[in-house]
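[User] I wish I could look at a protein chain and see how it folds. I have put the entry right below:
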Amino acid sequence: MKFNILTLLLFFVNFIFAQDSLNMAKMAHIDGMPGNEYNDIWGYVDTLGQKEYAIIGSSQAINIYDVTDCSNPVLYHQEIDGNTTIWRDFKSYGDYVYGVCDQGSEGLEIINMETKVFSQNTTDFLKAHNIYVDQDNARLYVVGSNSVQRGMIIYDLSTTPENPQLLKKIRLDTLLGNTTLDLYIHDIYVKDNIAYASHGYAGYYIWDVTDVNNINLLGSTDDLPGYNHSSWPTDDLEYFYIAEEVPIGRPISIYHIINNEPYYVSSFKNPLEAPNYENNRPHNPFVKDDKLFISYYHDGLVVYDIANPTSPEFYAYYDTYLPNNGNGYSDYHGAWGVYPFLPSGCLVVSDIETGLYTLSLKANEIVQETGDLYLTDSNTGIVVKNILGDPYKLTLDDNGNIVVSAYVENSSTEVKAIDADYVLDTNGAAVYFKRSSGLYKLFVDNSGNLVSQAATTLPTSNLVNISGQDLYISNTGNGFVFTDSNGQRWKLRAENALMKAYKSTSW
């Protein structure tokens, strides 16, 4: 199933892209690390949950900054290793940070974050492109290595994380009995012993790695024309966002995983240089709650709201690479990586040319009401905008049926404009409408369905009245938020002639 509305994102409010940022602020910027050329970034939180760190690779060093104060990063440790490289990758587990290089002979690099002791394991491989740690199962996966180019190396971290124990080296093309397959893994995500692997031009494969001596292929697809670079899922593992790095200009693709088989849904992109230049290049996507964070090379860090996972809404960006502004897209410049998972909300970004950025995502502005809402006049309703900025009005007719129509604002006095999310905070809260046939109320059930039904009386307390005006959510991206009887919040959004409520964790 494809959502054609996503293709319209290319034309969504291009005027905002004249700015360097939207809904995001720079907290700090650090440059001048050894080598002055930068690559991947990751994060670490100490075992007490009190200190936060950014681990950023420069061409000659591993650089670790204390970013507990997001506006004032402080160098905590720096490890200058033996090789100059433009490819590094990092992950953390327990008290340890692990790193690899895709040039030279550094092997698996291990840093004890408490003692700052550095060690290396060069027995199993010398260089690799990426690593991943399955936290729940205490396993470390090495991919794109010199010793197993078409497969993976798996380590156990559970007993000696300072000295990972080799579980398996596996070449996947021979496992499938077809050595003509180029099953080099560029990047990998692992959860519940299921590995979601980006195999470059060979496509996207899902492997069951529960038993390292009996690894099985669960599903795969090679329907994308570009180079399958990396992916990240929604929290429920139902949808994956896949980046194709080559050729330049490929969009982010959405896949629905059903019984471990990936099915294409749609794709989207929002070049900051549009409409003059369309070929921006995505790098690494990550999902935290209902936000999708993408390091987008020339366009910096780009953020989408994915409360509806199949219909991402452009939400924010910070352009770390300004030289391309007005000059289009070519080569590899700008934001390499982002780590959005620090508990404080501090975002850390690596830019190839200019180093470490700490950023703050603008919090959702809200107007929060305790109780119910009463639109006292006939034909008044709630107005929200679709992703193109077009307003649509939801109201009830004289029979209590939900009606959605395009909205034309005639006068500012006819609307109560709110430039924020409007939240009915009370569990089971409703909007009441007075119509010629009687009183009706609108609410969401615990599955997010909009429900309209007759009401006999108005609530006697905590009732907010709006007289003679439509409630107008005037900012694209904001919406009207119901709270169901279980306390879950649902954001009302316009999809042209429809309005739907989507689960949100933004507050």
